[in-house]
Model the fold of this input.
Amino acid sequence: MYRLTIVLLAILAAAPLAAQRRIDLLLDAEGARRTGHNLSFTPGIRFDPEFGTGGGAGAGLDFFVTDRVSIEAKAAALESQLRVRTIGSDFIATAELGRAKIYPLSALLQWHVSQHGTVRPYLGLGIAHVILHNVNRSVGSSATGIHFKDPTGLVVDGGLEFNLAKRWGLFADARYIPVESKSTATFVGTSSSVTMNVRPLIVSTGLAVRF
Done:
């Protein structure tokens, strides 16, 4: 899946040669919520990471190949509160690790329902790769950091575009990665690891500048 993401992004890099109708520059504020859960743990002391609701900013380009079909490439930088619950044979402890950095990258094929009007809905389907930044702070008295394997998955997308003027617009968007978004977290200094379903839901609103 990661290689497929790279291939799609490479295709998008060449898209402006074929997309002469319009290019939108997208700038937005984003909020993210993890909807998956932790699946399996190695034996011994159990480390259970939890991501809180977070947010940040994103940017992208939307290449219109026809009046109704576009190809969107987008990246964002988000932060989420990270805590780890440690469960042993005779104790439970929680460590607050501060803000974890999350970088979702997505490539989407979008279909715009209407060509005209002030409000224009759209639907999209594509692939996303989510970079979970490794955390090197101490996790209780046992582990000295967390290394993440970044998840990749199918992404579904929907939103509304609001026309303000010929070159300006607003948009509201929601992206969800419902499947194949598993990640592995390993804890430095221990033999412990956990498999997680990440499945982020990302909502955004921002400005579209047309060229």
